[in-house]
């Protein structure tokens, strides 16, 4: 065959296949509705949405001038709606739910406002829903549990509010949930069984850590709940979850801590700084085999630093500053055998050597320490 015949054959093939694809009318109607719910002044010429020109077919290749980006199709159906972070301003049309073959929605880093249309929660094939860094408001309706195939859900950095749904257990495929930086109130939902990462940082969650919330989630590796108003004691069963690797409870109102010896633990990093913890520095943390980073800064902990901490070879970061710890810090912290960083400052310790980075921040004035121990602390003789 000559090159010319091959070329013309290819041409015929290409044109016939592209002609064969005609996006289903309801998908086209939904895409039109999505575009028209966005303020055209916020659609500059370099953006994906600008190239959405409905004089051509959205799913038909080649996409040389029209529908350059922002969506993908499989055959004649739209399967991905992935807008560029162009700062689009507007609402999300409820007609998005007509795109019933959608697997992925990513509208992150734009300025969508108003409620998340609840019709979105009836998309039967949705696996990824990323609405982070927008201005969505309103609450998350219970209908969210219809997203049976959802694996990743990111609604972080919006203005969402209200209590979270009581239970997310029907979302059996969900592995990543990020609701951080919103205004959610109430308690932590009953979490689904395959969840690996939970992030609800910087909200207004309150109440105790309830065993029921975590009873099914045996795979949880990352728990990020800092900057909320959680209270009560952090219970021992929590630390006994062997899957946990990174836990952040900083900036809450926890008052206590139960730390059992683990049977099996993968905990690497734990931050409970800036809470209201009372009691002693738990010696049992030194029995967590992987623990590398521990932060208990700015609480109301008392007593001595258990010497076991200076023998714990996995530990590379230790922040105990801003408590009322007394006595001599374990001297093996300062022998240079370990490369421990962190801080023991702003406590009531004796002879914390300023040659060590750990002691750079000075100790509390004696009067404050005496007051904390109601005069039971004898001045240095
Ligand atoms: C340390 O762990 C053991 C075993 O889980 C427990 O009985 C004990 O109370 C814990 N110690 C402290 C001080 O919490």
UniProtKB/TrEMBL annotation:
List keywords of the entry alphabetically. Leucine-rich repeat, Membrane, Repeat, Signal
Gene3D superfamilies, alphabetized: Ribonuclease Inhibitor (3.80.10.10)
Entry keyword Membrane = yes
Is-annotated flag, keyword Membrane?
yes
GO CC terms in record: membrane
Record's subcellular location:
Membrane
Annotated Leucine-rich repeat-containing N-terminal plant-type domain residues: 25-60
The organism's superkingdom is given as Eukaryota
Leader sequence range is: 1-19
The protein here is known as Leucine-rich repeat-containing protein
Organism of origin is Artemisia annua (Sweet wormwood)
């Amino acid at each position: 065959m000559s090159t010319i015949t091959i070329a013309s054959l290819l041409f015929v093939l290409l044109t016939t296949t592209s002609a064969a694809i005609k996006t289903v009318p309801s998908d086209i109607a939904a895409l039109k509705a999505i575009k028209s719910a966005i303020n055209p002044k916020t659609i500059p010429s370099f953006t994906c949405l600008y190239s959405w020109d409905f004089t051509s077919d959205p799913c038909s290749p080649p996409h040389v001038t029209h529908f350059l980006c922002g969506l993908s199709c499989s055959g004649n159906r739209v399967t991905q709606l992935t807008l560029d972070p162009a700062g689009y301003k507007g609402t999300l049309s409820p007609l998005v739910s007509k795109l019933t073959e959608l697997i992925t929605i990513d509208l992150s880093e734009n300025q969508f406002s108003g409620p998340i249309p609840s019709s979105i929660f009836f998309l039967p094939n949705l696996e990824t829903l990323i609405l982070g860094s927008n201005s969505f408001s309103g609450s998350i309706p219970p209908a969210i549990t219809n997203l049976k195939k959802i694996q990743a859900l990111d609604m972080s950095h919006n203005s969402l509010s209200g209590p979270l749904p009581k239970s997310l257990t029907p979302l059996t495929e969900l592995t990543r949930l990020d609701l951080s930086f919103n205004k959610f109130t109430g308690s932590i939902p009953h979490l689904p069984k395959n969840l690996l990462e939970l992030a609800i940082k910087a909200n207004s969650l309150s109440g105790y850590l309830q065993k029921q919330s975590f009873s099914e989630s045996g795979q949880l590796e990352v728990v990020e709940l800092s900057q909320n108003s959680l209270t009560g004691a952090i219970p021992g069963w929590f630390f006994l979850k062997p899957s946990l690797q990174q836990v952040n409870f900083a900036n809450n109102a926890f008052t206590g801590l139960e730390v059992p010896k683990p049977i099996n633990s993968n905990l690497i990093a734990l931050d409970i700084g800036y809470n209201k913890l009372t009691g002693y520095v738990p010696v049992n943390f030194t029995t967590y085999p992987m623990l590398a980073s521990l932060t208990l800064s700015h609480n109301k902990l008392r007593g001595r630093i258990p010497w076991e901490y200076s023998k714990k070879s996995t530990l590379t970061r230790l922040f105990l500053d801003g408590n009322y710890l007394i006595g001599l810090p374990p001297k093996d912290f300062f022998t240079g055998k370990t490369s421990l960083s962190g801080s023991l400052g702003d406590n009531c310790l004796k002879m914390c050597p300023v040659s060590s980075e750990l002691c750079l921040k000075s100790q509390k004035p004696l009067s404050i320490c005496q007051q904390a121990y109601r005069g039971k602390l004898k001045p240095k003789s």
